Amino acid sequence: QVQLVESGGGLVNPGGSLRLSCTVSGFTFSDYYMSWIRQAPGKGLEWVSFMSRGGNTIYYADSVKGRFTISRDNAKNSLFLQMNSLRVEDTALYYCARGSKIPDFWGQGTLVSVAS
Amino acid sequence: EIVLTQSPGTLSLSPGERATLSCRASESITSSLAWYQQRPGQAPRLLIYDASSRATGIPDRFGGSGSGTDFTLTISRLEPEDFAVYYCQQYGYSPYTFGQGTKLEIK
């Protein structure tokens, strides 16, 4: 069955960095666009970034552009999100999801907390 | 950026009743709309795409309709597990955006 497992979240000071990972199984990773979507505590959903199958099409939300970098390793069935210059407002549960326009499977998320 | 406005914010109903949730787009997105269900402590689950197509494994009590700017998610007979938060999401134009959610609670 389709599974997506995120890792790498944690507590970090403002200005710090984290690298999130998402390892997938149950489908051919290289056939799909992949997304990162976040949810601040008690709030709604916000698209953060997505990447095409081969990595040549990338989208970033304006709120993270220039600070976050998405990447993927198709040989290792893995998606990554490098987050630099973190801000308090980046605090959220970060979900990895299959697809870009219509994310049809989601992981359980990894929590990123930015606080001093 | 296309703004999606969901109404009502909270809907209080009883099991067995019919639920009608609305989503309005700030401009036409044709039929490029999806609906998700999020139960407490869980990830969102895709219910409907292309405004009216049910995702794999979704019970037929869930139905979507609409096009252009006005969309509806209907749950014909509420089951206890249907009480959750529901989000609409448009993919007609980048950036893809979500509505703010409708909480469906037990009356």
Plain-language structure description:
The complex is a heterodimer of chains A (116) and B (107). Chain A has 116 residues and is mostly beta strands. Chain A has no helices and 11 strands. Chain A has strands at 3-7, 10-12, 18-25, 34-39, 45-51, 58-60, 68-73, 78-83, 92-98, 105-106, 110-114. In chain A, the strands form 2 sheets. In chain A, strands 2, 4, 5, 6, 9, 10 and 11 form a 7-stranded mixed sheet that branches. Chain A has a 4-stranded antiparallel sheet with strand order 1-3-8-7, with no helix packed on it. In chain A, a hairpin with a 6-residue loop joins β9 and β10 (105-106). Chain B is an all-beta fold and 107 residues long. The relative contact order of chain B is 0.34. In chain B, strands 2, 4, 5, 6, 9, 10 and 11 form a 7-stranded mixed sheet that branches. Chain B has a 4-stranded antiparallel sheet with strand order 1-3-8-7, with no helix packed on it.
Using brief descriptors, characterize the structure shown.
heterodimer; A: 116 residues; mainly beta; seven-stranded mixed β-sheet; 11 strands; globular; B: 107 residues; four-stranded antiparallel β-sheet; 0% helix
Task: Write a brief structural summary.
The complex is a heterodimer of chains A (116) and B (107). Chain A is mainly beta and 116 residues long.
